[in-house]
Amino acid sequence: MSKSKEVRPYADGDGSKKEQVAQMFDNIAHSYDRLNHILSLGIDKGWRKRLLKMARKQSSDYILDVATGTGDLAIALAKLQPKKITGVDISNGMLDIGRQKVKRKTLDGFVELTYGDSENLPFDDNSFDLVTVAFGVRNFENLEKGMKEMNRVLKPGGQILVLEFSQPEIFPFAQIYKFYFKYILPGIGRLLSKDSSAYTYLPASVEAFPYGKAFTDVMESCGYSETSIHKLTLGVASIYRGVK
């Protein structure tokens, strides 16, 4: 089984990866949305739209958005008009920002954002028609455990859609991207965020993540079938699909 090597936000700090990830996102919660859009040049919005288009192909009354953060994807999924969207995250700071956004869009009661651990989801078996994760699986402490948990709460025939950074391989775009991601992005992050480690962790976590076929192999070992990879922006990100 292919496993990602563990990369933690604070290499010299105490605590597990899970604890450090929660601390990091609490630290950057107030600047997270602005930074994300600046650093991705706004392309992340288009990626979420692509995921939404894929989700429309299958009816989904009950949706779970794991590692929901400030709720951007959970809010976007409201366009599918399901009966209920539940978002879970381990960062209360991110959830607080997300709940404010949900309230402003008058989606409270319909979109619920709550504290939850991806590796120990507080839901019954076979509860959701669709599970989504955007830029979250690489932050899991135990990737396989998290993938199995999401499979557990999916209904038979339900689908999972995972949006995650990958690594472009086309010359010279791959080389330009890696330089930006490793040297430019952390510098911008340090200027705009109070947590200098957060945007050093980002490229390190992407580099360590088993993207492409290595990730669909993990999905299949965790019980998903009909897996597929949909590359975005020359391979900067990918959407992975699987069915329970």
- CATH topology, anyone? Rossmann fold
Mean model confidence by pLDDT? 92
The parts where pLDDT drops under 50 for at least 5 residues are none
Number of continuous helical runs:
8
Oligomer: single chain
For the largest sheet, list the strands in their spatial order. Answer: 3-2-1-4-5-7-6
Keywords:
244 residues; alpha/beta; Rossmann fold; 7 strands
What does this 3D model show about the protein?
- The chain has 244 residues and is α/β, with parallel strands linked by helices.
- The chain has a single domain, classed as 3-Layer(aba) Sandwich (Rossmann fold), CATH 3.40.50.
- The protein is 43% helix and 20% strand.
- It contains 8 helices and 7 strands, in the order ααβαβαββαβαααββ.
- Strands 3-2-1-4-5-7-6 form a 7-stranded mixed sheet, sandwiched between helices.
- Helix 1 (17-39) packs across helix 4 (92-104) and helix 6 runs antiparallel to helix 7 (198-208).
- It is globular, with a radius of gyration of 17 Å.
- The two termini are 19 Å apart.
- The mean pLDDT is 92.
Brief characterization of the structure:
The chain is of the alpha/beta class.
Q: What is the strand and helix layout of this fold?
A:
Layout: H1 17-39, H2 43-55, E1 62-66, H3 72-76, E2 84-89, H4 92-104, E3 111-115, E4 128-134, H5 143-153, E5 154-165, H6 173-192, H7 198-208, H8 213-221, E6 225-232, E7 237-243
Parallel strand pairs: 1-2, 1-4, 2-3, 4-5
Antiparallel strand pairs: 5-7, 6-7
Helix pairs in contact: 1-4, 6-7
